Amino acid sequence: LNIDSNNNLHAMWMDKINNTQWDILYATCPATSNCTDTSNWSILNVTNRDSGDDDTVFVIDSNNVIHVTYDNNEGEVEYVNCSSSCTNRSKWSSPFNVSNSRPIKPVHSTIAIDSANNIYVFWHLEETAISGPDAGHIQYRKYTAQTSQWSNVQNITSDAINRYVTARQSTIYGNHESLDYIWTNGTSSSFYI
After folding, report:
1. What distance in Å separates the CA atoms of residue 27 and residue 87, rounded to the nearest whole number?
2. Who's near 66: CB < 8 A, 6+ residues apart?
3. What pLDDT score does 192 carry?
């Protein structure tokens, strides 16, 4: 659940619409409505492809643009966004493969945004899937708003026994802005943060 600068509520979640595979759903409720009444929420199936999309995370930037990442069933972290009228499917961007990590399956993606509306996407490369030199690592990619460009994918860990990354919105400390992210590290019997 997120609130934009106009106090409108926004929610995203996974659901099995046709009782087969997961899809990503979006809902919004205007600030002027009673949002405890479900009839005031407008809902849209964003992915609408019944392909097993999951682990959705979203943020809203200072321009009220909604930025979303999710893990698709094809071994990719995808990114989509919407700047207005987001209950209309045509207003959502086409999915962009942020992770570019096949054949290793990225999982547990998360997204954060800083005060300049730069986007940071983090994910874990599942080591139980097809192996490769980056399996088990935590990776990230940055979108720079000023240049409208994505950076190259980068490892942020030095070993391959990591899981479950999470990031949070950037925080301003005096004149310094900080983006915090954490992950667990360890084997299946013990994990460390």
Report:
1. 7
2. 2, 10, 26, 58, 59, 60, 81, 82, 83, 86
3. 45
Digits of tens for pLDDT over the chain (193 positions)? 999 999 999 999 888 766 667 788 899 999 999 999 999 999 998 886 655 566 788 999 999 999 998 887 777 888 999 999 999 999 999 999 998 765 566 667 888 888 889 998 888 776 555 555 566 677 889 999 999 999 998 888 766 554 555 544 444 444 556 666 555 555 555 444 4
Q: Is 177:122 a contact under the CB 8 Å cutoff?
A: no
Q: Which two tokens stand for residue 161?
A: 């026994």
Q: Cα separations (Å) of 174 from 62, 171, 177, 178, 179? A: 20, 10, 8, 10, 14
| Type of residue numbered 108 | H
- CA–CA–CA angle 106, 109, 115 (5° rounding): 140
Angstrom distance (rounded) from CA 66 to CA 84:
9
- Residues in CB range of 37: below 8 A, 6 or more apart: none
Q: How far is CA 95 from the centre of its chain?
A: 12
Token output for 137: 């690592």
Q: What is d(CA 129, CA 132) in angstroms, rounded to the nearest whole number?
A: 9
139: its two tokens: 């990776």
